[in-house]
């Protein structure tokens, strides 16, 4: 009887032990590295949700932020080289991380993820997220529209009755806006990545001129069949953007002004136009909700209505690194963060263009306007040559267009040779 009682007490203790609650302070923290530019309202909301529900989810999240642009890129390369990586890494794409950041072998293959059911096969097989049939990361956050965003009230006050569809119409609109004492076009070169849009749009002319799709064009660039020096339309787009500066259509402090400052200027009607990724609309909606309806979105009108396209880029990639001390838990965190549930939390705070299936997105007038435009896949550099830094060099007169085009080819060849790319073999 005594032995039976002891056995019953032990069994009861085991049951109680199995049912013991998990407290938040007992949960392990998963670390994540991202660029400060990408730590918007969506990621903040997701991080808060995870930490508020960590006992249920089984993990906490600590998001580490680094500078944007080339400064942050250099830090990622340095930390990759020394294996000083967090559990989760948020970067541009698998292909770029492997080819230009020394990332080969630094990302763990992902298997048995439940969240893959929330994405199409074309996304999962993209070079953005895998290589040779191996999945190294998942789409994280919003896809990106690159276009022109504008303040409707400013255009109305200046007598601009409809959005410009050609470059001449755009220049005419800028003259009218300047005449009422408002900056026509805002540049934010203090955050260099924002300087890319005009040249990216210029690539459209190079696709059309060759009768190629954007995918065909970039495959030719990345296999040494087309040189950047031969992309006349690209450089024409950059030249036109510099003419905006020369014509006094851009604020004098454009070299130091930032992306955050651009949001405020556009929302408050201190400028009329701002070329950027569509996340600027989400940021304005979060910071100035009463101004969101004033912001429109369209294409950059470098050409004519038939040939002005809207660039769209896949979302960034979230991966588990080989330096993770608990890769199983890191993958569990990634699986939740990239799932429909995780991305819906993100999107509720930051509306945008998501590749996750079945989500409910609250649109904005700018998104709805752009949704009617023809989309093309934006740039697909195989090797990172930090193009936006060179664009700013051109703006300040440190380099001529011909030299810049040649430098793009030189930097690409240098990276290709360093990676033993047979397309650049002598």
Keywords:
426 residues; alpha/beta; six-stranded mixed beta sheet; five-stranded mixed beta sheet; 18 helices; 13 strands; globular
Task: Write up this protein.
With 426 residues, the protein is of the alpha/beta class. Helix content is 44%, strand content 14%. It has helices at residues 2-18, 41-52, 54-57, 69-81, 94-100, 121-124, 152-157, 167-179, 197-210, 214-222, 232-246, 259-267, 279-287, 327-337, 340-349, 365-370, 387-395, 401-418, and strands at residues 29-35, 60-66, 88-91, 130-131, 134-135, 138-140, 144-151, 183-185, 271-277, 295-298, 310-313, 316-320, 375-377. Strands 7, 8, 9, 10, 11 and 13 form a six-stranded mixed β-sheet that branches. Helix 2 (41-52) packs across helix 15. 45% of the residues are buried. Mean pLDDT is 88; it is low at 1-20.
Brief rundown of the structure:
The chain has 426 residues and is α/β, with parallel strands linked by helices.
Mean pLDDT: 88
Helix/strand/pairing class, anyone?
alpha/beta
The helix fraction, in percent, is 40-55%
Low-confidence regions: 1-20
Taking all Cα atoms into account, the compactness measure Rg is: 24 Å
Strand content: 5-15%
Number of discrete helical segments: 18
Coarse shape = globular
> Distance N terminus to C terminus?
88 Å
Number of strands: 13
Write the layout of secondary structure elements.
Layout: H1 2-18, E1 29-35, H2 41-52, H3 54-57, E2 60-66, H4 69-81, E3 88-91, H5 94-100, H6 121-124, E4 130-131, E5 134-135, E6 138-140, E7 144-151, H7 152-157, H8 167-179, E8 183-185, H9 197-210, H10 214-222, H11 232-246, H12 259-267, E9 271-277, H13 279-287, E10 295-298, E11 310-313, E12 316-320, H14 327-337, H15 340-349, H16 365-370, E13 375-377, H17 387-395, H18 401-418
Helix pairs in contact: 2-15, 9-11, 12-13
